[in-house]
Amino acid sequence: MVFLNRIYTRSGDGGETGLGDGRRVPKTDARIAAYGGVDELNTLLGVTAANVELPAAITPRIATIQNDLFDLGADLCVPETDTPPEHPPLRVTSEQVARLETWIDESNESLEPLTSFVLPGGSPAAAHLHNARAVCRRVEIGVCHLAAAETINEHSLAYLNRLSDLLFVWARYCNDAGNNDVLWVPGGER
């Protein structure tokens, strides 16, 4: 359980912040950038859910994903260690990744097959989901940068990779099952 009785602590005024294991690092650290990106993605999904009409099946799933993204932020906030910690940190699981795969498969069944790349847009819901997908890809790159420098939970990257796929499928679903997708026409505006 989280208990916050003070929002400001002044401990970050010098450009450092604390990790979940108590270590202090610069706010420019790759780990901070990685879970800061996860927070941005989570916020964007909240904005999407609050501002556009989504299919009934998607809305509760976005809430689940937002909770998962807090799990992912908590995971990234506590570095992996060879020594078992006294209190095991929260880690993203293979089950969370598998759940996204199930949702992708369920949603993709009803979509028209793709004949071209899809331009972000169409309905407002699809446009918001495409925006979230693009941010998710950027966040994934930030976590890849962290993974290149430090050991991270392997399910973290898998979760983000599946999430961007799910957001793409959901965007198509919100475009009348792909019937109203805006397709890329290579060189079509020359």
TrEMBL record:
The positions making up the signal sequence are: none
Q: What Pfam families would the database entry show? A: Cob_adeno_trans
Give the enzyme class: transferase
Concerning Gene3D superfamilies, the annotation shows: Cobalamin adenosyltransferase-like (1.20.1200.10)
The Cobalamin adenosyltransferase-like domain sits at: 7-174
GO BP terms = cobalamin biosynthetic process
Q: Which reaction does it catalyse?
A: 2 cob(II)yrinate a,c diamide + reduced [electron-transfer flavoprotein] + 2 ATP = 2 adenosylcob(III)yrinate a,c-diamide + 2 triphosphate + oxidized [electron-transfer flavoprotein] + 3 H(+); 2 cob(II)alamin + reduced [electron-transfer flavoprotein] + 2 ATP = 2 adenosylcob(III)alamin + 2 triphosphate + oxidized [electron-transfer flavoprotein] + 3 H(+)
> SUPFAM superfamilies annotated for this entry?
Cobalamin adenosyltransferase-like
**What are the record keywords, sorted?**
ATP-binding, Cobalamin biosynthesis, Cytoplasm, Nucleotide-binding, Transferase
InterPro entries, per this entry? CblAdoTrfase-like, CblAdoTrfase-like_sf, PduO-typ
Q: In which pathway does it act?
A: Cofactor biosynthesis; adenosylcobalamin biosynthesis; adenosylcobalamin from cob(II)yrinate a,c-diamide: step 2/7
This entry's Gene Ontology molecular function terms read: ATP binding; corrinoid adenosyltransferase activity
Q: Can you list the GO cellular component terms from the UniProt entry?
A: cytoplasm
Q: Which family does it belong to?
A: Belongs to the Cob(I)alamin adenosyltransferase family.
Q: What is this protein called?
A: Corrinoid adenosyltransferase
Annotated source species? Symmachiella dynata
- What are the leading ranks of the lineage? Bacteria, Pseudomonadati, Planctomycetota, Planctomycetia, Planctomycetales
